[in-house]
Write a structure and sequence with these properties.
- The longest helix is centred in the first third of the chain and has 16 residues, at 46-61.
- It contains 19 helices and eleven strands.
- The radius of gyration is 21 Å and the shape is globular.
- 45% of the residues lie in helices and 11% in strands.
- The chain has helices at residues 9-13, 46-61, 74-85, 100-108, 116-122, 124-127, 130-133, 165-170, 179-191, 204-215, 220-228, 238-253, 265-273, 287-293, 326-336, 339-347, 363-377, 392-405, 410-424; strands at 34-39, 66-71, 93-96, 137-138, 148-149, 155-164, 279-283, 298-301, 311-313, 316-318, 351-352.
- Strands 6, 7, 8, 9 and 11 form a five-stranded antiparallel sheet that branches.
- Helix 2 (46-61) links the parallel strand 1 and strand 2 (66-71).
Length: 428
């Protein structure tokens, strides 16, 4: 879970190439009988639906070869990938989180296959905009943005405010087009004994609230310093201090429930889906699922009052160094970048990188892509808070939990982040 580029969704959707057809029985890989695939997308998410279709397409193009799919959770792969990829149990292809602390770390450890030659041969580099490409390439220190290709995304993503239009209308609230609108809505919900923000303290949701608050006081150079080490990162600067203070204040005001300290991201999404929490700030990866499952009218908006928000190219297809059927893995990646699968992804609530723009006909999907166009067009994709250094995700989780349950204070929170960050930054 880079966009640095100013490529718009229109640019992402346009300029698609006809991809080389996947190798069939005569392509040198047909003697393999199984492609072992791991990913962690829900079956009714845009990516899950697209990749299910890709599996069917793959098996049609490769008679006698079966895809052995194992569903993993984000947390499972996040925590066990280095160990698994260093063993004989590694899959042939897996979805993995992008960024210095994840794909960058594995590339540095020699656990991922260098895909550079395959990317050029199959034309994948021509399909991906500069912004989306950033998280695919890593240098010898595992820092994203340059070097060899270790992963390939087939979608883009960003974060947004999801809001329950029915609940907003019931309480006669304006849709949150400004930050003041958002705060006024949260105050009203609290008065009616409704906790407004869906939250997950045990996983990524809480830390992304904090990061978005910081981004509302930041600029591009701040992001580049933090994520790409192009300057000094001070966690007691104006942006981070505002973020920590405001998040702690929101807990005190009841915008965020203290009971969410141990909640998982799934619980946050479900609380929104069940109409319990009227607002969720999270990623486009929920979009297709909400389209499929929500029984109320809902809408989205970019975080009001901020030019920057977390976002990037999507998670990466990576091929473990120890994969036994690499050619089959490359063929599967190729299929996920085909127009057929890209168009499906786009109409299911995803942000495709190589679709036919005229093929995206679903109104909700068009809205999703329009917001992405706005955000990426202003160079607003700001990566994610846990990316800069290995192990930072766990630090952010544990320290943000302390802000939620009251066992920690903003100043101590920022001290802890500074210490962990400084220890992890590569020494040059």
């Amino acid at each position: 879970m880079a966009r640095r580029g100013t490529a718009s969704a229109a640019a992402l959707l346009a300029g698609s190439l006809l991809l080389a057809s996947c190798g069939g029985p005569d392509g040198g890989a047909a003697d393999a009988e199984t492609l072992r695939l791991w990913h962690y997308e829900a079956p009714n998410s845009a990516m899950g639906a697209a990749w299910t279709a890709a599996i069917e397409e793959f098996e049609t193009r490769h008679p006698g070869v079966k895809v052995e799919f194992e569903e993993k959770s984000f947390e499972q792969i996040q925590k066990t990938a280095p160990m698994v990829l260093n063993s004989s149990d590694a899959p042939d292809l897996m979805e993995y989180n992008k960024g210095n602390a994840t794909a960058g770390l594995l590339s540095r450890q020699g656990l991922l296959t260098d895909l550079s030659d395959e990317v050029t041969k199959r034309g994948w580099d021509k399909l991906l905009s500069p912004g989306v490409r950033t998280t695919s390439r890593y240098d010898t220190n595992g820092v994203m943005g340059s070097g060899k290709w270790y992963g390939v995304p087939n979608y883009a993503e960003y974060t947004m405010v999801y809001f329950n239009k029915d609940l907003f209308a019931k309480h006669r609230l304006a849709e949150p087009k400004t930050f003041d609108d958002l705060v006024a809505a949260m105050d009203t919900f609290v008065k009616h004994k409704i906790t407004p923000l869906a939250n997950s303290g045990a996983e990524y949701v809480a830390q992304q609230y904090v990061y978005q608050l910081a981004l509302s006081r930041a600029d591009r150079s701040w992001v580049d310093s933090y994520e790409l080490y192009r300057g000094k990162t001070d966690f007691h600067d104006t942006a981070w201090t505002y973020a920590a203070d405001t998040f702690a204040d929101w807990v005190k005001k009841g915008y965020i429930g203290k009971s969410s300290t141990g909640a998982k991201s799934e619980e946050a999404g479900v609380s929104f889906l069940q109409g319990k929490a009227p607002i969720l700030f999270s990623g486009s990866w929920w979009y297709g699922r909400f389209q499929d499952e929500a029984t109320f009218d809902w809408g989205t908006t970019l975080w009001p009052g901020a030019d920057l928000s977390p976002g990037s190219g999507g998670n990466l297809w990576v091929v473990p160094k120890s994969a036994r059927n690499k050619e089959l893995a490359y063929d599967f990646i190729d299929i996920t970048l085909s127009k057929k699968i890209q168009n499906l992804l786009g109409n299911k609530g995803g942000i495709p990188v190589a679709a036919d723009p005229a093929a995206i006909t679903d109104p909700k999907s068009q809205e999703l892509i329009a917001h992405f166009t706005t955000l990426s067009g202003r160079d607003g994709l700001a990566f994610y808070p846990d990316w800069p250094v290995p192990g930072f995700y766990d630090v952010l989780v544990s320290e943000t939990q302390k802000l939620i349950n009251g066992s920690g204070k903003p100043d101590g929170y920022l001290d802890a982040l500074q210490e962990a960050y400084d220890k992890g930054v590569p020494k040059t």
